[in-house]
Automatic annotation (TrEMBL):
<dbReference type="InterPro" id="IPR037158">
    <property type="entry name" value="Thr_synth_N_sf"/>
</dbReference>
<dbReference type="InterPro" id="IPR031322">
    <property type="entry name" value="Shikimate/glucono_kinase"/>
</dbReference>
<dbReference type="GO" id="GO:0030170">
    <property type="term" value="F:pyridoxal phosphate binding"/>
</dbReference>
<dbReference type="InterPro" id="IPR004450">
    <property type="entry name" value="Thr_synthase-like"/>
</dbReference>
<dbReference type="Pfam" id="PF14821">
    <property type="entry name" value="Thr_synth_N"/>
</dbReference>
<comment type="pathway">
    <text>Amino-acid biosynthesis.</text>
</comment>
<keyword id="KW-0663">Pyridoxal phosphate</keyword>
<dbReference type="InterPro" id="IPR000634">
    <property type="entry name" value="Ser/Thr_deHydtase_PyrdxlP-BS"/>
</dbReference>
<feature type="domain" description="Threonine synthase N-terminal">
    <location>
        <begin position="239"/>
        <end position="313"/>
    </location>
</feature>
<dbReference type="InterPro" id="IPR000623">
    <property type="entry name" value="Shikimate_kinase/TSH1"/>
</dbReference>
<comment type="similarity">
    <text>Belongs to the threonine synthase family.</text>
</comment>
<dbReference type="Pfam" id="PF01202">
    <property type="entry name" value="SKI"/>
</dbReference>
<dbReference type="GO" id="GO:0005737">
    <property type="term" value="C:cytoplasm"/>
</dbReference>
<dbReference type="InterPro" id="IPR029144">
    <property type="entry name" value="Thr_synth_N"/>
</dbReference>
<dbReference type="InterPro" id="IPR036052">
    <property type="entry name" value="TrpB-like_PALP_sf"/>
</dbReference>
<protein>
    <submittedName>
        <fullName>THNS1 protein</fullName>
    </submittedName>
</protein>
<dbReference type="InterPro" id="IPR027417">
    <property type="entry name" value="P-loop_NTPase"/>
</dbReference>
Length: 738
């Protein structure tokens, strides 16, 4: 029934047949009737006043695609070049360009666009229309702009056999590639929807993509979120009507039932051709394309999202490639994730998320963000939120809780140094698991959260990896790493790779699994633990057992974790989204300290994951060995992954090792690994000593600057008591917002 309504022109459905179908459906399934009727009108609203406006470079196939889309919708098709410009000028476009020159042509073209109006049509723009701001503002008012994004290499191949006289800006000394690259900035400014078009994709397929993309644009209800602990079969009509969208889950963080948010319909999957179209793209361009598919434009428009991404990954990262892939040895490659301002992979999410958060939250309320950190998240989230505009800082504050004696001296110095007027660090006399569990309990304490809202007009939010928005940027760098290996000629697209990740809270690992689901050819994800190896045991046996386990302090503190929060999302995924099962498992873990997967679920898990662990002794030995043979210094977490990859990977395909932090953050352990006898306890002195080695990579610029500023900075310390933590939170709200 749904497909009868989809995209068919109104006049093809007779009054009698329409009435009959509607009556039967309305009587038998009133809710379904309402949903389908709404969907039908959504699909046909373009036949009213709105236009579909196709935009893209010359050779993108706008004219051919426009004709097919028009036929499918049974609506007028207008080609700006042929039907507007040449009719207005009474001469061909190439003749006009030759007569008046580049600049005058753009002005004349813009004037013609300003006089043009249409409704309910499919309009194919010229390749240069987007370069005239007033003309584009005029035509965009009554339409949805669809950008046919074709790789530059494909466009150049197509245009070799065509006349070039119609391409504005092409002249002696200016190559076609230069023209196409220059125009991208204008296309990015105006589009509402991007449609990726590969080299061999038929126009019919592109037209279907356009229609699908327009339908998605019109119907944000296609992209709602549910809790991992929500049972589909047990949901009430009230729950079904109270839908949650991306902007809701960014601000809410944790579901009210204690579960984690996941997209109800899963993540989008890219075709092989779409991924291959991103091989030549920059990191920022890849991030824009991937995140546009994960965030509905009703939540954040494409143009705003592009602005946020460029801000996040621009000058804040010291490497122009943002997340470069470096060959280490043999079949092993390092994905360097430490070029951000605070020297860890957390910067990828936490340079981006503050801007997403600030855009999504309502202006009528203040927000306090709670973060638990095992080290790296603290400084990253403090730095990220400190870069917000002052107007946003006035309504958004942040507090990080970290184990006072469970982070490295440099990590602690970083967190102290990154404190700002709206962001504070609080040391807790316990471990990370307590900090994380405490935050979860605070979020689900409706009496406390309600009191803060009523008394202080302040809502709580989370920026840990339990927040869905934290995971999306991590998907990007796993996908980008694979595309970089293809670009470097190490593999051809479609060849498998393994990924090895030092794993604590399972967020980074989950992001790699999501990249695999979206079409990146990842064979196995290798989970690397230190002596807190509960995840290794779980992946091998299906038994998650915390009974009798005590957290062990190690040289890789970011993975000193026993309760891996994001594992819940993965179990929800492989458990056929059975919220009842997830609730049962994690209630049992909370109450009894263990749970066991069913055999079939363990089989699914082991298709994706293998796991191993590494002792501190082996970690330091790996750092020494790699430095001795390559001159490269691994941090302690990357060394854990290197040891596990050596043991588990079969060398039949490349393995990408996630280098999650810069070695400078763990200077005492690194100096010990390099067999330095006497180690000065001053963090700054330790970094200066490391810099004398002239190793790769060099000492991290951001760390040095932060430590120089820290001086004798101070921070609050509190007991491992829920009431004490809640008292701290209330005091911080009073001091900042009142």
């Amino acid at each position: 029934m749904f497909h009868i309504f989809q995209y068919q022109p109104l006049r093809l459905i007779t009054q009698n047949s329409l009435s009959s179908m509607c009556l039967k459906l309305m009587l038998s399934r009133p809710v379904a009737f309402a949903q389908i009727w709404k969907s039908w009108f959504s699909s046909h609203s373009l036949l009213g006043k709105k236009n579909i406006i196709l935009m893209g470079p010359p050779g993108a196939g706008k004219t051919t695609t426009g004709r097919i889309v028009g036929q499918k919708l049974d609506c007028p098709v207008i080609d700006i070049d042929d039907d507007v410009l040449e009719t207005t000028w009474n001469m061909s476009v190439s003749e006009k360009l030759r007569d008046v020159g580049y600049e005058e042509f753009l002005e004349e073209e813009g004037k013609a666009l300003l006089k043009f109006s249409a409704s309910g049509s499919v309009i194919s723009l010229s390749g240069s229309n987007p370069m005239h701001a007033a003309g584009m503002q005029h035509i965009k008012k009554n339409g949805i702009v669809v950008y046919l994004d074709v790789p530059t290499a494909v466009i150049m191949g197509r245009l070799k056999s065509k006349q070039m006289g119609r391409i504005v800006g092409l002249s002696p000394g200016v190559s076609l590639k230069d023209v196409l690259q220059f125009r991208k900035q204008f296309y990015k400014r105006w589009f509402d929807i991007r449609v990726l078009c590969g080299g061999d994709v038929a126009a019919e397929v592109v037209a279907e993509k356009v229609l699908d993309a327009v339908k998605r644009y019109q119907d944000s209800e296609l992209e709602t979120f549910i809790s991992t602990r929500t049972s589909r079969s047990g949901r009430s009509m009230e729950e079904d009507s109270h839908k949650l969208y991306f902007s809701d889950v960014v601000t809410q963080g944790l579901a009210l039932d204690g579960g984690l948010f996941v997209p109800e319909r899963g993540l989008t999957k890219f075709t092989a051709e779409e991924w291959q179209g991103l091989i030549e793209a920059t990191y920022v361009e890849r991030a824009q394309v991937i995140l546009e598919r994960c965030i509905h434009p009703a939540d954040i428009p494409a143009s705003k999202l592009a602005e946020i991404i460029e801000t996040a990954y621009g000058e804040n990262f010291s490497c122009s490639k943002v997340a470069p892939v470096r060959h280490l040895a043999g079949n092993q490659f390092l994905l360097e994730l430490f070029h951000g301002p605070t020297a860890s992979f957390k910067d990828f999410a936490l340079q981006l998320v503050p801007h997403l958060f600030a855009y999504c939250i309502p202006r009528s309320c203040n927000y306090l963000i709670l973060v638990a950190t095992s080290g790296d998240t603290g400084s990253a989230v403090l730095d990220g939120f400190s870069r917000l505009p002052d107007t946003d800082k006035q309504r958004i504050a942040l507090v990080t809780f970290f184990p006072e004696d469970g982070v490295s001296p440099i990590q602690k110095s970083q967190m102290i140094g990154c404190q700002k007027e709206n962001a504070w660090s609080v040391g807790v006399k316990s471990d990370f698991d307590f900090c994380q569990t405490a935050i979860k309990q605070i979020f689900t304490n409706s009496d406390f959260t309600g009191f803060l809202t009523v008394e202080y007009g302040t809502a709580l939010a989370a920026a840990n990896s339990i927040n869905w928005a934290r995971l999306l940027p991590q998907i990007v760098y796993h996908a980008s790493a694979y595309l970089d290996l293809v670009h470097q000629g190490i593999i051809s697209f479609g060849s498998p790779v393994d990924i090895c990740i030092p794993t604590g809270n399972f967020g980074n690992m989950l992001a790699a699994l999501y990249a695999k689901m979206m079409g990146i050819p990842i064979r196995k994800c290798i989970c690397a633990s230190n002596e807190n190896n509960v995840l290794t045991d779980f992946i091998r046996t299906g038994v998650y057992d915390l009974r009798g386990r005590k957290l062990i302090s190690s040289f890789s503190p970011a993975v000193d974790i026993l309760k891996s929060s994001n594992l819940e999302r993965y179990l929800h995924l492989i458990g056929n989204e059975d919220g009842q099962l997830v609730t049962q498992l994690f209630n049992q873990l909370e109450n009894q300290g263990h749970f066991q997967l069913q055999k079939d679920l363990l089989g699914k898990l082991q298709q994706d994951l293998v796991a191993g662990w590494c002792s501190d002794e082996d970690c330091l030995a790996a750092i020494h060995s790699v430095y001795s043979t390559t001159g490269y210094i691994l941090d302690t977490h990357t060394a854990v992954a290197k040891v596990v990859a050596d043991r588990l990977q079969d060398r039949t395909c490349p393995v990408i090792i996630a280098s999650t932090a810069h070695y400078s953050k763990f200077a005492p352990a690194i100096l010990r690994a390099l067999r330095i006898a006497e180690i000065n306890q001053n963090p700054l002195s330790q970094l200066h000593l490391l810099s004398s080695y002239s190793a790769l990579p060099p000492i991290h610029w951001g760390l040095l600057e932060t430590l120089k500023k820290t001086g004798n900075g101070d921070h609050q310390v509190c007991a491992a008591d829920m009431n004490v933590l809640m008292s701290h939170i209330e005091t911080l709200i009073q001091n900042h917002f009142m």
